[in-house]
Amino acid sequence: MEYRAAAKEIGKGIFKPVYVCCGSEPHLIQEFIRYLADKWLAPEEREFAVSRYDLAETPLEAVLEDAQTAPFFGARKLIVADNAAFFTAARDGEAAEQAVDGLIRFLAAPADVSVTVFIVPGDKLDERRKIVKAARRADAVVEFPAMNDADLAHWLRRQADRRGIRFSGAAAEKLLILCGGNLQLVAGELDKLALAAGTGGTVDEAAVERLVSRTAEQNVFLLVDELARQRLDRALDIYRDLLVQKEEPVKLLALIAGEIRLMLLAKSLASRGMGTDAIAARLNAKPFRVRKALEHASRFETERLARALSRLAELDYAMKAGLADKALALELFMMELIARKDPA
Fold first, then answer.
1. How far apart are CA 329 and CA 326, in angstroms?
2. What would the pLDDT profile of 95-122 be if each residue is shown by its tens digit?
3. Residue 67, CA distances (Å) to 31, 100, 145, 174 in order
4. How far apart are CA 29 and CA 140, in angstroms?
């Protein structure tokens, strides 16, 4: 079941005794659990009726025992168990396998006073496992796939509405670029932007530029975006700011190479007729990042990108061998990438 279908059921007051949450959007999983808690538990129960476990530290038997024990406060309880690796290809010991057999029995005859949520690490379940087949039979699996562009735009609008703000111009796109499409980062930055804008306020691109925090990875993503748009001055400003922040040029080179490699791979797969979502699944990347990579790659010939990647490999060796001024070499590379047809 896809998470939106599960949320609609919950909104209608239809609850499953067990949910197995998996997918590439952990922030959405946490949003789903908060929504489930709001609908399943009375407001006065929520502080005491939610139990959380880490299955990397707590035996599964303890979680199942809790799920089958009547609540001390109120009529219902919610149990959240993280790191449920036994739904994946991870290997279990004999004792763990016996506990999983207990979960299979529980799925067939669950308690009616509790809802138990298992959070699976990683994107995929191991469909060969008995426990996964049992969870599928019970319709307990809730999948949280990476968002496509339309889903991401809808989610962002909904989050802005909840905070009583709106975006103007390209502010929303800029926020997504700076956060690399990471929902957890976007949500945190939205709180900051909402505080600055005030209820009913408008967030413009300048506010996003000024207020949103950026890691080195996010800055490099923005730097490559500026290079792709042939805006060398802006790209160099970002680069020099990173140097002032004591970021190591060798690290920045590796990040730039990663972006160019993604551009090359995405462009190659797109040339075979693959769509953005299919490319994202193949490359284990978010659709937003793939869309931006394709957008960037469209401004360069494939051979030019391949030569740029080769040049970065040469520079990496030269930097580490002490044969080049690190900061200057990478700056010259960016100038070559834009100024010349092929960086040599």
1. 5
2. 567 788 899 999 998 888 899 999 998 7
3. 22, 14, 28, 44
4. 14
